[in-house]
Design a protein that fits this description.
The chain is of the alpha+beta class. The chain is built from 4 helices and 4 strands, in the order αβαββαβα. Strand 2 and strand 3 form a beta hairpin.
Length: 100
């Protein structure tokens, strides 16, 4: 198995949605999200990351750079027999490629 194929076999995709205080500095959060092995910025408050971490570890990792009262949602994206789709085709295509 090639390195990238092996890498994909052990990693998971997570969607991260957050509501943060836009008056505060977002750069630590953005920097933290970009530390994941692979990432895709869907919108300014929604990212998809690829990592070997579990969902709780992803959440705790991001919580390190958020402020009290800010909200974060993390969910694993599971590839099933049906195709991942949405109104943002580039995102669906990226997920399909990463989880293939």
């Amino acid at each position: 198995m090639k390195n990238k194929e092996l890498d994909r076999a052990v990693n998971r995709a997570y969607i991260i949605v957050f509501e943060i205080n836009k008056e505060l500095d977002r750069s630590p959060l953005i920097f933290k999200l970009k530390e994941f092995q692979r990432y895709f910025e869907v919108t300014s408050s929604c990212w998809i990351v690829i990592t070997g971490m579990d969902a709780d570890s992803v959440m705790m990792n991001i919580r390190e750079v958020t402020y009290p009262g800010e909200h974060i949602f993390v969910a694993e994206i599971v590839r099933t027999a049906s195709r991942i789709s949405g109104f943002l085709p580039d995102v669906a295509a990226w997920i399909e490629e990463e989880l293939h």
